[in-house]
Structures are given as structure tokens and as C-alpha cells.
Amino acid sequence: MTTLQTVLTANTGHWTLAPDRSTVRFRTRTMWGLVPVNGTFTEVSGSGAVADNSVTGRVVISAASVRTGIGKRDEHLRSADFFDTATHPEITAEVSGAQPSGDGALLDLTLTVRGTSRPLRLPVGIEVLGDGGLRVSGRATLDRRDFGVSGNMVGMVGSSTDVAADLVFTRG
């Protein structure tokens, strides 16, 4: 892992997310906690900047790109019961700063899902890759109800969702 201080001093400039090298995944338990639903968002873009001892950035996820491996379930997740992608096509994470934390950093960000924004402090690992890219990896457990993503269906879907992102940025 790389420390935030190393990134701030040796990696200043503008960075672009490499979608083909990045993943955003989620896991939610269903069937009263017995069966997990795993999914991926297949369309993600973003950019960031490291300058003046600070970090800023924006990651955009196409909510309609949700894939769980079951087409009918994916359609339902895109509906007004869950992500309502017709009205809210994007999930965004706006990074406004970072503080050192162990081998990584704590990112200050605002997550917006379904038109509802919430501040988060997200612990991430940072790695400078052999090709000069930066990998930022983090995990969080979110309560879907905090973002208006209810879709409970008689207790079949838990409110907790684990989200994991492994994002690679390249200069430019």
C-alpha cells in the first residue's frame, strides 16, 4: 500500500478513471438473510486531482448498468422500487478531501443515490501501480433506506448493502 503523503507529494496532477480496470460491486442478503445477491455496476467513469496537498474527484456510476446475472431482477433493481434509473440515472461520489489513515486514507465524500446525498468518511487503500496508475480501493456497508432505495418486499431484502470499489486512475 501507499501512504496518502506519498500520493500528495509524488503524484500531483489530473487523473482519469480507467473503466476497464475498475469495478464497483455490491452484496445484499435476501430471503430473510439466507441468500446473498451479488451485483456489479458495469459502467463507471470519473476523474480526480491531486494538488496543493489535497485530493478532489468525482466518480459516476450508471445506475442502469446494474448486473446481478438475473435479467428480471436487474430490471426490478432499475425500477422505481429500487434505483429508479429513469428519474435518477447516475450514482455519484464527490470527493472533497482526504486525511492520512494507516497505510491509506480516509476520503471525505458525498454519495448521491436516487437523488439523495449523504456525507461519508470512507477508509481506502491506495496503491501506486507499476505502470504509474493509482489504485484506490474501499468498502462500506450502507443502509439502502438512507438513500431512498427501499424495495423491501415483505422482509425479503435486508436494508444493509455492502459496497466495494476497486478504482484505477491514470494520468491525464
UniProtKB/TrEMBL annotation:
Organism listed in the record: Mycolicibacterium smegmatis (strain ATCC 700084 / mc(2)155) (Mycobacterium smegmatis)
Taxonomic placement: Bacteria, Bacillati, Actinomycetota, Actinomycetes, Mycobacteriales
Residue span, Lipid/polyisoprenoid-binding YceI-like domain: 14-170
Domain of life: Bacteria
InterPro entries xref list: Lipid/polyisoprenoid-bd_YceI, TTHA0802/YceI-like_sf
Family as reported in the entry's similarity comment: Belongs to the UPF0312 family.
Protein's recorded name: YceI like family protein
SUPFAM superfamilies, A to Z: YceI-like
